[in-house]
Design brief:
Helices cover 35% and strands 23% of the residues. It has helices spanning 13-17, 19-28, 44-62, 76-83, 94-104, 144-156, 206-211, 216-219, 245-254, 257-267, and strands at 4-7, 38-42, 66-71, 88-92, 108-116, 120-122, 137-141, 161-162, 175-177, 183-187, 201-204, 222-223, 232-238, 272-273. The strands form 3 sheets. The protein has a 7-stranded mixed beta sheet, with helices on both faces. A 5-stranded mixed beta sheet has the order 10-7-11-6-12. Helix 3 links the parallel strand 2 and strand 3. It is globular, with a radius of gyration of 19 Å. It is found in: Membrane.
Length: 275
Amino acid sequence: MRNTIKITTAVLAAGALTLGLTACGSEEESGSDASGPLTVAASPVPHAEILNFVKDNLAEKAGLDLEVKEVTDYVTPNTSTEDGSVDANYFQTQAYLDDFNKKNGTHIVPAGDVHLEPLGLYSEKVKEADELKSGATIAIPNDTINEGRALQLLAANKIITIKDGVGFGATPSDITGNPKKLKFKELEAAQTPRALADVDAAVVNGNYAIGADLQPAEDALVLESAEGNPHANFLAVKEGNEDDPRVKKLAELLTSDEVKKFIDDKYAGSVVAAF
């Protein structure tokens, strides 16, 4: 029987607040208790769904005791992994992790790519991107990397142009061409699908799109290409715990043929296996 625990930002706030008090001591510690269950914080869709498939179908046979904790924001999983509240997390890309570690002094490292969630532009007002009217408002994620991905997506589809070389660190101030005089509303990534009724369009992360009953492969006006995309989502742990046998076993299961088939069958191109 599946035992999934949902955690909100408020519930885990204490773990985040104690990060500053425990960071110095935790740097001196090595490894984690490999005798208990492996606890993984994950976004509900598709990360926790994929983990729960592993838990329900593969983990017991492989001798892995897996506990899945659903988290709805992009901060708590890393702070909880850093302070030891959880053993690992599964929700992010390398660019996001690099930026998070730099800004927060955390020591999280990847432990194996699993899947890609293409970022997409969605609208309840128009059916094609070129139907956006002059002065239209587009909601975009406000965290550094996903905002840059959103702007790069719009630039790749000739909706705007942005400065050369800014990469995924692009912000609205880097826009050099905006023929439709679009306005940008910066929101927490989780809020972008909920804003669709109030804006003309929104760039939404794949996991939040699926969670809002959007089908990226069918509903997106424009969608990131999966080919050559550097934004695979991966299992992550605190530095020093990469060799935990439970982590290695989970990484192996997450890249199994069974998980690839589950991803292909369940998400029909909206989530793509990255292995």
